[in-house]
Amino acid sequence: MKSTIFFGSFAAMIFMVFGTAVPGAASAQGYPSKTIRYVVPFPPGGITDMMARTIGQKTSDAWKQAVVVDNRAGGNALIGADLVAKSSPDGYTWLAMTITHTVNATLFPQAPFSFTKDLKAVSVLGSLPMVVVVPQSLPVKSLADLTALGHKRSLNGGSSGNGTPQHLALELYRQLAGINAQHIPFKGGAPSMISLIGGELDFVITGLPECLPHIKSGKLRALAIASSARHPFIPEVQTTAELGLPSLTITSWTGLMVPSGTPKDIVARINAEVASVLKQPDTAERVRAQGFDIVANSAEAAQSFMAAEVERWGKLVREANIKAD
Fold this sequence. Notes:
The chain contains 13 helices and ten strands. The protein is globular. The relative contact order is 0.17. The protein has two domains: about 25-125 and about 255-320, 3-Layer(aba) Sandwich (D-Maltodextrin-Binding Protein, domain 2), CATH 3.40.190.150; about 130-225, D-Maltodextrin-Binding Protein, domain 2, CATH 3.40.190.10. By secondary structure, it is an alpha/beta fold. Helix 2 packs parallel to helix 11 and helix 5 (about 100-105) crosses helix 13 (about 300-320). The protein has helices at about 1-20, 25-30, 45-65, 80-85, 100-105, 115-120, 145-150, 165-175, 190-195, 210-215, 265-280, 280-290, 300-320; strands at about 35-40, 65-70, 95-100, 120-135, 155-160, 180-185, 205, 220-225, 250-260, 295. Strands 1, 2, 3, 4, 5, 6, 7, 8, 9 and 10 form a ten-stranded mixed beta sheet that branches.
């Protein structure tokens, strides 16, 4: 009897030691087994939200498990990111993140979480080209014309807020071209487009989905696309590289992150599924129609890319003395 009790106790002890030593492997086998919360730190209806809802719905269909999008806007996208960073690292809380978060790493040194330590990349889902646009009323026909005007007088350049891709692009253009430009931040991309169309701004460098309808309607004139290749939606618009400013290359992008302690095999499971979703013809068509170029890279590549973005934009934030609102 004593030996039986000892064996049982010993077996229980072995299970406690080795069974709990690999919680990630055990949890990944049955993952997912409950509702996944996909936090979008922006209001509904934006391009990041649209991508998250596409991924969420398709993943839910494949896994037969609910993926619920939770919009937590505010604080320059810090509120939603903080929620995810402090969530249980079990794969059931996702973050829809963007270039804004890599800027925030420098812009908000006192943030309640660390972007580089508390969050782990799963994948960069897609990227969006940025376009230099001016109102039709502005008497410039090319990027060279706009640059020349910016050497003669101060230009009013708009953005959707401090530290946003539009703001970074403006500062990068100002730095590379040596123009005089006053940054005017708005609370979102739509208000900046309205002011630009109304002639209150001289230019905005913004994401293609935001300006494309206005380019097509003739309300805005596209001067350049800030990428290394032309875009099929506006093939007539030359790249900044073609126009002599190859360093003025910037893409807005969205990715997927989870709390940093999430087991690698769960991260791999999520990565594989979102890559599969984005390869589906109907999903790819929908995402490209929204203006995205599909990326869907590995977790390792995404982590390296985001680290490089933190470094790149941190340098610009410091050099341009960009401050938070």
